[in-house]
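User: Hey, my collaborator sent me this sequence without any context and asked if I could get a structure. I don't really work with proteins. Can you help?
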Amino acid sequence: MVMKKIVISSIFVGLIVCLAVIFRPVPPASPENTLKTHGTVETVFETGEHDLVFKLKGDDRIYYLNQGPENGPTLAELREDLSGRSIEIYYVKYWTPIDPLSRMKHIAKVDLNKTTLYAK
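Assistant: No problem. I've predicted the 3D structure and written it out in structure-token form, which is a compact way to encode the shape of the chain:
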């Protein structure tokens, strides 16, 4: 009976630790914890409440910009200005156990021709 309680308690604690690691917040962007990628914009679309997603040609990841239009250009402007153009995206180096499933990267900065379009 005591062994059963220990096993159940251990499973519960393990589950809580796993959930804490999965749902921890994305750290603030800094030069030390950002990575750079570049590519041609395939599409830009909006999700939820003013959040933007960038998809680059030949890249299986998606790049997520939290509350984009509130802090910068509108979705229509971005689609017009960026479709088919080469950009640089700086994203936060951040890992969770569900990364292999989601492939989502949180954007810290977007540059077009050495001009910053968005910076967190």
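In plain terms: The radius of gyration is 19 Å. You can pass these tokens on to your collaborator as they are.
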